[in-house]
């Protein structure tokens, strides 16, 4: 199987490297050239441009947002270059609207389309231990399964409409943001009464909430350590907005998401957009007159 | 050390039993007599009334709410019966206002007061594996430590003002409610787009949110199994209200708690007050036109 | 008809004066003596204490809040001093719970009880132009009607349960707070895009929202003129809390009220509790990074 | 002055007719032909298409939403057909993003652009009594002033950036929605305690809230009369979303708007999208278990 890979950022590069390690023949493209050279050193072939994937059976892409997907995959010719019967494996976190539009346009073009956004940060991607949220037609999922197995510890299936995987990804990110906001409000409550926010979070994340999401963000909140940003607050705002847009499309009131969007905007307005999105907890503290 | 124990409900009875097993000499009282007899059979002495604890060094109480604490401990004479130097170990989940009032009145009376609400349900209490959230003066905490060790797996200290432990307990219950609401909204989003709510929750609670709180309530939401109630929705409403009252006392805006109180009221108005509080998730589903 | 009047504050004093002007024989009591002397100069008799109203046919009271009503009317003996068949006309803004409790205790004592909170500030009270929100039994309402006519421009009837008038008063104050919050958010939106908040409010309150509530508070918001306080923000918080408590008693979700309580707490935490409650609009502005 | 007019719907047609009555020479276009013929009967000239406005000095347009403006003005060639120095007077309620984009593209083309959305419904438009919210460069505003005077009772100026008028229009519509939600929650509170919702609204809109917005929508809520729709709930959702988008662009948290969007979605999910947007009040009632 000949595989293409577009988007060699902090996530895409280790994911592509894991494909090479697993023995796949890889052709890669990236806007900047440095990561391309790194992968060529590992055995990949460099594409001449985003439209140079006519021979691949599967084109994986890991681009940062809707605008980049639009400019590279659609306007840049990546999709158009694919041969009949090829599959585009889109692993980016994108909006429901774009996901639905891409699913339709790929079908019209006679090529497969699988959405497979991932859970996990850079170190998890490097270890090939991502959790992968996949949706698409059964035969397409079967074809890309070996690739997903090389990049992740487990592939979760969420339906035959590709966009369903994107909704699940947005729902999962909403849950992460919600965990941050929850700890932010709870810590502020404890601190306002003279208690230790970090002591509270230590207890919480050692007992009922002993899970990676709470432990990771809880430690940041307890230490008020919001730099360097693992995931910027401005991107957190974007993801919550995407969840709300998906909610609106499905007529789903999401009051927690709405509350968080307002709090993210508050944080942005105070100049905290470049901090880690765990800094959402600063809003609760500031509004309570703490810190 | 002579120990008294008041309140032998579903939680209090196994907690008292664990004290007996650990070798403490116990004198017990309960409004209804059946659990008293069960503990007498284990070796406890039956008190003649709530005011019959003049000889104990520590009086533990595990009563259901503010009104019961007021009627038994204050009006019923339990507190007044204690000798100088005795300690009242109050393990109930009560309001910040009552906690502060009790701390003051015990001090005035010249007796110790430790607040030690617990995390864990009946089976955890039976196993002596509770997490205990304690606050009070150091000497008082030291004196009750052997009792707490017999009832729990770990005692967490949250300050020298007893009410601080109550705030932490309310903050923890707020986090639990928030986890329920979060999964309710996220599931509704996934389902509105044709996905499987239970598949989503299965994934979520196996990965980033693999913690008891999410797994326990996630399973109930996924299966829409809200009876029998482990903890009634009407009690969940009460605890969120207590968290909001503590927030108001400390001038802490808690928009998640406010949102949930409205949703709990919605559930109550639809007649769901006797379901498990995980049925808060029904509100998100119904508002989205699902099920 | 012999009339008593308790509570000669900024509202009560002009209301009592209007009763004297209308020819009623008045006996008055107030915690501080200065306003008593002013009314004696107008022809009133001074009571010896809050319990010195045995001969009156109607006892009107205009006290500031639940605690004062409790301490003067209940604990202070005013209610107990009334003769069989007398009517207590309670014009204070109090909680639903206290209103219900007073209605029950008066009935038990064999005396009438009418709740008649008012709309209007001091200048309106002086002019005898209050709008009066009344509830109680028909015969009681009929008996106090001449008094209400002397104090207000119109009496609105809201049911035969006295507490219903209190609920209407809380609902009306909720609407006022909501108008403030609405203008605060809308002004922030306009200003954030370089527009004039005051120009916007000028237009708004000259057209679709040309009503006293919007014009009064709109002008304060436009000019950011929050001192001296006509009605303190801390009291606004209290009234919104009372509305929420009434909502909880009736199982009515009130998300606007919940949002405002959080915003009031935010304002309190920033030290704005003594400003006019129109300063709720500062919260929206500050959160948007304005001013 | 030669004037063009595009968009002869329920609002546009009487507005155009008022221009003719005021003596302006009018050339008109509409997607459907019936209103064109009506205006030709009044003396207007029929354009051959949306791109047939090369000779006009001012082209007024009153189209229903972003998509229609895009398809007629941009894609349909209306804007492109204008001669150098002409002015496009866009009176539609559109998004901030489209407003900014149109301002930029008109400037680039060397033609003027004035945004002038209106307040008022059909009968107000017919009477030439609209309130017009205008923004743009001073010379452009001066040139279109006679047209605006013929269509409205007053023109309010909101800055030299055309989009500022659109923000003001979105802010005003947000205030209307907020008035509906406020009355909905307050009525539910009163009714839940056995009071009369209509009696409450009658009092409210006769006193503190005696303004057109409250009286108009208050009557509909009191009578639960949501058909025929003067303005559909689905369009209300759209306008609140546009306000939120403008808020996000300006980093303005708008918790009331967020709450309303969720409530609008609730109403949509229950099938009430075609009712008048005053039916937002049904959500508060239903959530409280009323009606």
UniProtKB/TrEMBL annotation, chains A, B, C, D:
Q: Mind telling me which InterPro entries this protein's record contains?
A: 3-OH-isobutyrate_DH-rel_CS, 6-PGluconate_DH-like_C_sf, 6PGD_dom2, 6PGDH_NADP-bd, HIBADH-like_NADP-bd, HIBADH-related, HIBADH-related_NP60_sf, NAD(P)-bd_dom_sf
Residues at the active site = 169
Stretches assigned to coiled coil:
none
Q: Which Pfam families match?
A: NAD_binding_11 (PF14833), NAD_binding_2 (PF03446)
Reply yes or no: does the keyword Oxidoreductase apply: yes
UniProt xrefs under PANTHER family = CYTOKINE-LIKE NUCLEAR FACTOR N-PAC, OXIDOREDUCTASE GLYR1-RELATED
Q: Report the protein name in the record.
A: 3-hydroxyisobutyrate dehydrogenase
Organism this protein belongs to = Gallaecimonas xiamenensis 3-C-1
């Amino acid at each position: 199987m000949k595989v293409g890979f577009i988007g060699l950022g902090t996530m895409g590069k280790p994911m592509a490297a894991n494909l090479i390690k697993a023995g796949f023949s890889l052709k890669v493209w990236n806007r900047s050239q440095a990561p391309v050279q790194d992968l060529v050193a590992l055995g990949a072939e460099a594409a001449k441009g985003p439209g140079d994937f006519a021979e691949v059976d599967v084109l994986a892409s890991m681009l940062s947002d809707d605008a980049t997907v639009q400019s590279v995959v659609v306007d840049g010719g990546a999709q158009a270059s694919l041969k009949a019967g090829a599959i585009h494996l889109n692993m980016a976190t994108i909006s429901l609207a774009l996901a639905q539009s891409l699913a339709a346009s790929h079908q019209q073009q006679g090529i497969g389309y699988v959405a497979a956004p991932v859970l996990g940060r850079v170190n998890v991607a490097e270890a090939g231990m991502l959790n992968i949220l996949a949706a698409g037609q059964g035969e397409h999922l079967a074809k890309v399964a070996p690739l997903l197995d090389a990049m992740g510890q487990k592939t979760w299936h969420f339906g035959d409409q590709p966009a369903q995987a994107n909704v699940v990804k947005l729902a999962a990110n909403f849950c992460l943001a919600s965990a941050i906001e929850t700890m932010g409000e709870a810590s502020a409550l404890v601190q306002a009464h003279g208690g230790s926010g970090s002591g509270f979070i230590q207890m919480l994340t050692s007992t009922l909430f002993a899970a990676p999401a709470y432990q990771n963000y809880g430690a940041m909140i307890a230490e008020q350590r919001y730099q360097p940003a693992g995931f910027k607050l401005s991107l957190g705002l974007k993801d919550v907005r995407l969840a709300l847009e998906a909610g609106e499309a499905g007529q789903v009131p999401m009051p927690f998401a709405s509350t968080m969007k307002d709090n993210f905007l508050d944080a942005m307005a105070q100049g905290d957009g470049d901090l880690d999105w765990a800094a959402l907890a600063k809003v609760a503290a500031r509004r309570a007159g703490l810190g």
